[in-house]
Specification:
The chain is an alpha/beta fold and 305 residues long. The protein is built from twelve helices and ten strands. The strands form two sheets. The chain has a five-stranded parallel sheet with strand order 5-2-1-6-7. Strands 3, 4, 8, 9 and 10 form a five-stranded mixed sheet that branches. It is globular, with a radius of gyration of 19 Å.
């Protein structure tokens, strides 16, 4: 299969690099500056699981053509509209696998390309793209999941699974990708809301008098929103989140906090804001989630975003 990866930043570069390393036919759709970096040094991955460097075939927006079996969409939510315009010449006949945070991008992509073309996808990993182009694996065991959102996509999803297997055990076909996406959304919205609101790691928050209780209140609001959507987090998954998000020794923080600390653009509306709307629709007051989103809105307002 021919795979086009939109973006060679953290997610696209890391998982795309694993596929290239395994021998998959992968091309990266990137901007000119990133293309120049990749021509010079290839994809450079630094990870506690093993460093590696692989060549990266690239294509620019103005040169992209149809003929792809699958497209992995690995952009930030605030770049989604531009990504859709960029992908239009390439999308015909391809199964699109979005690897964005949250949920609401699915409706946007369905409207742009048709629901039949848009599968589900989720990743778990902590990554940082350095100014020199290196991708650093910071935290979390890497996971890449894709799956059919409707029965008519299943054969194509299974064919893609066989190709992605070249990248190793990190890649897998989910038998319930929407549940997986909602579970991640529950986790990420809680993590982003708390670590950004408090400007602290999970451990630093948990070591305060009220931190663990506040975190668990946000988690319950997010879980209720997921349940109202028809995808209640599994009991064992929620139990694990309660432990991980209140661990007093944990260095974990959302990548949104790193972006915010650097003065960069953030996905506050797409993650925390969307979850707050869903929690309110589910009948939850969600005061801590609301405080976190207010803070993120104020930050984005200063940026003029």
């Amino acid at each position: 299969m021919r795979i086009l990866v939109l973006g060679a930043g953290g997610i696209g570069g890391y998982f795309g690099g694993l596929l290239v390393k395994g021998g998959a036919d992968v091309t990266f759709l990137v901007r000119p500056g990133r293309a120049a970096q990749l021509r010079e040094q290839g994809l450079v991955i630094e990870s506690p699981l093993g460093n590696f460097q692989v060549p990266a075939r690239t294509v620019l927006r103005e040169d992209v053509q149809p003929g792809w079996d699958a497209i992995i969409l690995a952009c930030k939510a605030y770049d989604l509209e531009d990504a859709i315009d960029t992908l239009r010449p390439a999308a015909a006949g391809a199964l699109i696998v979005p690897q964005l945070n949250g949920i609401r991008h699915l409706a946007v992509l369905d409207a742009a390309f048709g629901a039949e073309a848009v599968a589900g996808g989720m990743t778990q990993v902590g990554l940082a793209l350095e100014p020199d182009g290196r991708i650093r694996h910071l935290a979390l065991t890497p996971i890449f999941r894709h799956g059919a959102r409707q029965a008519s996509q299943q054969a194509r999803a299974e064919k893609l699974r066989d190709t992605l297997a070249l990248g190793g055990e990190t890649f897998a076909l989910s038998d319930n990708i929407l549940r997986d996406m909602w579970e991640k959304f529950t986790f990420l919205a809680t993590l982003a809301a708390m670590t950004c609101l408090m400007r602290a790691t999970v451990g630093e928050i948990a070591r305060t008098d009220e931190g663990a209780a506040l975190t668990l209140s946000v988690l319950e609001d997010c879980a209720a929103a997921s349940a109202a959507a028809g995808y209640a987090p599994r009991g064992e998954y929620l139990a694990d989140l309660r432990t991980r998000l209140t661990n007093p020794t944990s260095p974990l923080a959302a990548s949104m906090l790193r972006d915010l600390t650097k003065g960069g653009n953030i996905e506050g509306e797409h993650i925390v804001g969307d979850m707050l709307s869903r929690a309110r629709a589910a009948g939850r007051a969600a005061p801590v989630l609301a405080a976190a989103y207010t803070q993120l809105q104020a930050y984005s307002g200063r940026l003029g975003k």
